[in-house]
Amino acid sequence: MKTVLHLATFLVLVFSASAAPTRPNIVFILADDLGWADLGCYGSDLHETPNLDRLARQGMRFSDAYSASPVCTPTRVSILTGKHPARLHMTIWREAASNRGNRKLLNPICRDSLPVEETTFAELLRDAGYYNVHLGKWHVGRAETYPQAHGFHRNIGGTLWGAPQSFWHPFNGDAYFQDWRYVPDLEPSSKGDYLTDVLTDKAIAVIEEQAAAKRAFFVNLWYHTVHTPIEGKPELVEHYRRKITDGHRQRNPHYAAMVHSMDENIGRVLAKLDELRLRENTLVVFSSDNGGFTRFCKLNKGLQVANNAPLRSGKGSCYEGGIRVPLIVRGPGVTSNRRCSTPVVSCDLFHTFLDTAQITERPDGPTDGRTLLPLLRDPQATLNRDTLHFHYPHYYSTTSPVGAIRQGHWKLLEYYEDRPLELYRLDQDPGESTNLAAAHPAIAERLQKELRAWRKRVDALEPETNPESN
User: Which of 141, 193, 285, 455 has its CA 20 to 30 A from that of 434?
Assistant: First the structure.
């Protein structure tokens, strides 16, 4: 009788396994400091990005995608948790979290690490049977909050630092940043190896392993590129140096070479998915953590790193150049060769990943994103949301403490220092060149009230007056 029961149980399990739908794999590729206008499919006049351009034709390209923050760490935690950085009290990168500064306003003291109590999409995917691997930049906290503490089975290269000392082997030292840094778990590598290539080698190996095991996987490939130090491969730097003319808007051949290498490596990942016949059952998502870095780089003889035109300003700013980012999605059920103009934000990826994996469980308490699946099926669909909020209560080279709200085509910026409100109509003025606050005071006042109410609702940290400031 036991033998019959065991056989019956076995047959039920086999039948259930064969009848159960195969969960899609997910490959999420996040660039660091890549501007909205840095890809060919987004209007770059210099950079050659054939693989990402092809991905956009095969899937959907979002024209109005935003990072939840104009700097890296806050956007990354918004992706992991679906919560706005203001709600998490993580509105600045780890190293600056306790730096109050000595300007007219004092920066708020923030969390420097994502608490392990926060539920990430990786934890929910892991519990549903996914094999999760993080590769590359992490930068969301101290060692006790590394990827392994937030749902990833493996961590390759992720540390508390925001950038490597060099993109060339051995990827360590103290040549560029003041502290001694390294990128772990990249062995074996040797002289002449380039960091973006090596991380891609590791990602491809993971995909091959999990494909052989027939196990659903999530590859979290967070490249360090195109963050400083701006170091492109010499042959590519020379290629772009020869290409640049007086008519080019983008003029840094070193930066262009880094974008080129990133695109080549993304092409390698996509080719591996094709080779293993995984393309039809793999969601591929590409984006950036904030807008392009517009400062000048001493390594590149004083050249400006990125140029985000036609958008205004860049990293650190709540103008469009600091928070509007590329977003490309391809995968099961995604409409191909379409452009979606609905405003979306990095918090939305949390729910999108979980819904793609058919996971209904969600953490207790509020989150701030929406699933993008309706838009991925039909770019004319709606998300039942017309407002996005931004909160950067800190100083940066491009800004003083500021908040912003986008509602429909209208966008308002409210600075904490004593300066007028700024109101822009983005469909007519994406470069935010004409302040319409005086011409439309009722709209400006309404959006200011809504922005302040939102800050109160999420318990956002705010700057304080410096008693020692004159």
Answer: 455
How many of the other CB atoms lie within 10 Å of CB of 10?
Answer: 10
Structurally, how many domains does the chain consist of?
A: 1
Separation CA 238–CA 121 (nearest Å): 42
Residue 19 pLDDT: 35
SS3 content of the chain, % helix, strand, coil (to 5): 35, 20, 50
Judge whether 70 and 317 are in contact, CB under 8 Å. Answer: yes
CA 395/CA 92 separation, integer angstroms: 10
Global pTM?
0.94
CA distance 331 to 318: 31
Asked if the peptide bond before residue 229 counts as cis, ω within 30 degrees of 0, the response is: yes
* CATH number, position 277: 3.40.720.10
pLDDT at 3 over 70: no
Name the residue range of residue 263's domain: 22-380
Q: Is residue 458 part of a domain?
A: no
pLDDT (tens digit per residue) in 314-356:
999 999 999 999 999 999 999 999 999 999 999 999 999 999 9
Q: Report which of 222, 183, 299, 215 is spatially closest to residue 34, judged by C-alpha positions.
A: 222
Q: How many helical (H) and strand (E) elements, i.e. helices and strands, does the chain have?
A: 12, 17
Residue 455 within a domain? no
Q: Give me the pLDDT at residue 470, please.
A: 66
